[in-house]
Amino acid sequence: MAETRTVTPLEADLSPGELLPSGRRFRIVLVLGFLTALGPLTIDMYLPALPTITGDFGATPAAVQLTLTGTLVGLAFGQLLIGPLSDAVGRRVPLLAGVGVHLIASLLCVIAPNLAILGSLRVLQGLGAAAAAVVAMAIVRDLFSGFAAAKLFSRLMLVVGVAPILAPTIGGQTLQFTSWRGVFVVLTVAAAAIMAGTAIVLPETLPVERRRNGGIAGTVRDYGKLFTDRVYVGLILVAGLAMAALFAYVSGSSYVLQDGFGLSEQQFAYVFAGGAVGLIGATQFNVRLLRRWTPQQILARSLVAGLGFGLVLLILAITEVGGLVGILIPLWLVLAMVGLAMPNAPALALSRHGEAAGTAAALLGAVQFGVGALAAPLVGILGVGAVAMAIVVFGGMLAATLVCFLVVQPHRLPVEQPETAVAFAH
């Protein structure tokens, strides 16, 4: 017979996750961290292999970059579908099914005979990673609230930042011992381990009585309501356009640094990690900035600064002044400004729709990865050199800045409560 005990008045004010034994809570948080990392690992681990894949399949760089676009498309549409689905049927089934799809797709990528099939399988990988990302966030909301939720969100956002540093490094080291297909073997093993941990550790966190039963019509109504909010739409576009600048770097950097400047696969991984360090450092520094400035102020100023650094990057790329250093310094500064903008735009957007936070978060993620998906092949179409990458980076920052000041108009937004900013600032 299960043990029962009386809940004290103090415990009655705690969220369900805070009532769990510390050991079990730690295991749940650990699994949520691995789930959150699955998307960045899927996107970035094979980046050092892009030039090799181009040669093996006799394809153009733009065609190979479409495999990255496929992953981002899967991440975008997957969140739109799986977010509302998990609100209706619970968390475990969509989550386990999604990670299972990722595992199977990763295994099939190992034996993909041509680029078209590889690109299709990358879409399925993205769908699986979308389930991991959006359901992990939903589980946090199920189990924790208030300061506890803010603290856990900050840890998961840090995972999102650290994973892109580790992924190309892992991919680069893997390529020392095997071909690019070996990268997908590693992803298959990772997905299997994450799926096992999820099945063993994570409980169902959404009770039947809290599930939304509006069906497709209810989901459409929820999304329709979000699209009527001009400021919310503007903010998610700002987040998406900033993500486009980031993914222009992600998709173009391997060609620019390896083919253009002659870096090895391992050297590229280390340089790529340097940019990620700047991005992560900015997201963490944002917490300190929030003690003095509002999210609106930080968002506006970071976009203007990022636009300026993007212009410098474009000028130096065109004139070829400064060589590799002339590209990396302004590029890393742009990434740092993206790191300041990315936490604050979602914080402001999601604070406007607390009654439908899951759907609002799904749409936000879809727009971020959807717009980012457009940036990846655009770099290839323009030529994959430093100038092409710089044009898309600068264009993303320019569009984000224009949408921010013309549509969002941050100076007119109400000041957010500190708890709201901290929850997403990390």
UniProtKB/TrEMBL annotation:
- What UniProt keywords are attached to this protein's entry? Cell membrane, Membrane, Transmembrane, Transmembrane helix, Transport
Q: How does it sit in the membrane?
A: Multi-pass membrane protein
Ranges for the Major facilitator superfamily (MFS) profile domain?
25-413
Location relative to the cell: Cell membrane
- Its transmembrane ranges are 28-50, 62-83, 95-117, 123-140, 152-170, 182-202, 231-256, 268-287, 299-318, 324-344, 356-375, 381-408
Name the CDD domains for this protein.
MFS_MdfA_MDR_like
Cite the SUPFAM superfamilies for this sequence: MFS general substrate transporter
InterPro entries for the chain: Efflux_drug-R_Bcr/CmlA (IPR004812), MFS (IPR011701), MFS_dom (IPR020846), MFS_trans_sf (IPR036259), Sugar_transporter_CS (IPR005829)
Coiled-coil-forming residues are: none
Chief location bin: membrane
- Spell out the family assignment given in the record's similarity comment: Belongs to the major facilitator superfamily. Bcr/CmlA family.
What NCBIfam families does the database record attribute to this sequence?
efflux_Bcr_CflA (TIGR00710)
Q: Cross-referenced PANTHER family, in alphabetical order?
A: MAJOR FACILITATOR SUPERFAMILY (PTHR23502), POLYAMINE TRANSPORTER 2-RELATED (PTHR23502:SF132)
Give the protein name, as stated in the record.
Bcr/CflA family drug resistance efflux transporter
